[in-house]
Amino acid sequence: MHVPPLRVDHQLLRELANNFKLGENKLKTGYGSFQITPKTIGDALGINATGNLFPEKVEYKQLYKQLSDDDKIIYRRFQGKTLKSLTDEMMEIGVGSEEERLMFKRIFILYIQMAFLLPTTINKISPVHLAPIFKMDGISERNWGAHVLTFLIKGITDYQDKKKKAIDGCLFALMIIYFHLSENKGKKRAERPPKPWIANWTKEKLVERMTAEKEEILYVLNNHCLPSRMDSRKRKQRQEEPDSDSESETEQSDE
């Protein structure tokens, strides 16, 4: 999984969250509705989307009681850690022994969740980040697609229903899915780019598409779905037409 370094427009991410249909797990767009499943997340990011699930919600006290004495030491080591402290630990830890390599893997799993797969507005490790690191055997074969999607749905639910201002979860994955499926809609399988989809989106290509999407959003102030580029072009053409033509078109649409 390669994530190009770039700043993502927050307005676009909010529109994606606004147009995510809770209960159906569908993204409503001007190109149609796209079903979002663990497999879709897996195809987009190149992570596994089959196998055993991670715990959906684990409270600190509940998690702590379930741990062995050795795991409780690990738990206390990471409890309350920030993203910066994890970064520092990854840079400092050695990998000469099996024990050190295992600890490095744990730190990396925590880091990639906090920084990308399961980001939160609170810059501290949460129980949902900690739960996976205590069962490291076959961790890459666990259902990461479902793990990411479950957390994203919770974040969007808090945003839509509880009016939380910030949105937890990997909205970047939702953006890649939207860009890929809309760009390749109607194409035959042989014509579509290979998986993972994120590998086909360079920084330059992402910036170009995000710029186009931002312009379209500005044309639709009260839109109920993300507009398509074709709709955007039509709106531009209407704005460039003479006033008389615009007035007659408005009258026809009002009838």
From TrEMBL:
Highest taxon in the source lineage: Eukaryota
Biased composition annotated in UniProt, kind: Acidic residues: 242-255
Chain segments carrying region Disordered: 230-255
Protein name, entry field: Aminotransferase-like plant mobile domain-containing protein
Organism: Arachis hypogaea (Peanut)
